[in-house]
Structures are given as C-alpha cells and as structure tokens.
Amino acid sequence: MSQEVDMCEEIQTHRLTFVLNPDNIWNSYNSDCRRITETDEWKEVKFLNDDASSLNSDIESVPNNCGGVYLFTLKGQIVPTSHVYILYVGRVKHTSNQNLRKRFREYFKDDRPKIKKMRNTWGKDLYIKYLPLNDNTIITSLEEELIRVIIPPCNEQYPKVINGAIKAAFM
C-alpha cells in the first residue's frame, strides 16, 4: 500500500495540464512568425548539470551579445528527438543590461511557482532551445505568438482570450 501512496504523491508532483490545439489554433499561426521560426538557426543547450545542482556548463556557449526567443523543453529520451514537451516560452530583449546567456542563468534562481516546479521536478531533463535575434520588436511579437499557439503549461500569461478561457476551464 505504501508504494501506491508514494506513487500517487509522485504522480501529483509531476502532473501538468497541457492544452493542445484548441479550435485548431495551430492553423492560425502568423505567417510572418512562421517564416522566422522555420530556420535552422535554432540552438539548444542542456539547462542543468546531470544531478540538477547547478547550471550546465553549455550555458557558457549561449551568446551574450543578442536577445531572442526560447523554449524550455522536457526531453524524456525514450524515443530520441520525438519525446519532447514544450513547457515554457520566453524572450529576452537585447539591451545593455540583458542578453540570452544572462537570462538563462537567471532561471536557476527564479522563484515563480511554475518555473520553480519546472526546475525542481524535471531539472536534469530540461533543455533550452533558443533562436538568437536582434530586433526587439520581432522578439516581442514572436514570443506572444508562440505562447498563443503553443499554450505552454509553465507560462503564467497568455493572450487575453486564451487566458480567460484557461482560467474558466481550470479554476
């Protein structure tokens, strides 16, 4: 019986709700954004080291001279390259005080509840897929559009219609 209780607690801890393609939203993905994201310029780094106690050293290879959009992904490695969940979509504008590498480092100590759960629960299997960009207007609009069509479970803010629908459906 205690194994069942332990497994029940683990299932509760590891549970996320995904919303996949409501109202065929993927078909409405903005064509300008699609042109930007359909590129081989995407890069990927492992977020944490193998025991999830610190940042992976690969973070040092992330550019510190630009902004961009990024996806936190959970890679189960059960079926290589196919067992991937997008948990979070983010962006960082390039400014004199901010860049991709700095932003990724900040997630190690981020205390927002969903980010903390993502890091603490799946840290050793988290990867960051990122697209370096320099145009802050494009960075902002691309992040908003990716959040709108992907509806990642660890983001807090969604476009207005989706945000209201999610609150009504799950609260």
Describe the fold and architecture.
With 171 residues, this protein is an alpha+beta fold. The chain is 36% helix and 18% strand. The protein has helices at residues 2-13, 31-37, 100-106, 113-122, 136-150, 160-170; strands at 43-46, 67-75, 84-92, 126-133. It has a four-stranded antiparallel β-sheet with strand order 1-4-2-3. It is globular and about 55 Å long. The mean pLDDT is 91.
Based on the model shown, name its key terms:
4 strands; alpha+beta; 18% strand; globular; 171 residues; 6 helices
If you average the pLDDT, what whole number results?
A: 91
End-to-end gap = 31 Å
Lateral arrangement of strands in the main beta sheet:
1-4-2-3
Order of H and E elements? HHEEEHHEHH
The unreliable regions are none
* Biggest β-sheet strands, sense, barrel: 4 strands, antiparallel
Structural class: alpha+beta
SS summary, helix count? 6
Strand count: 4
The portion of residues assigned to helices is 25-40%
The rough form would be described as globular
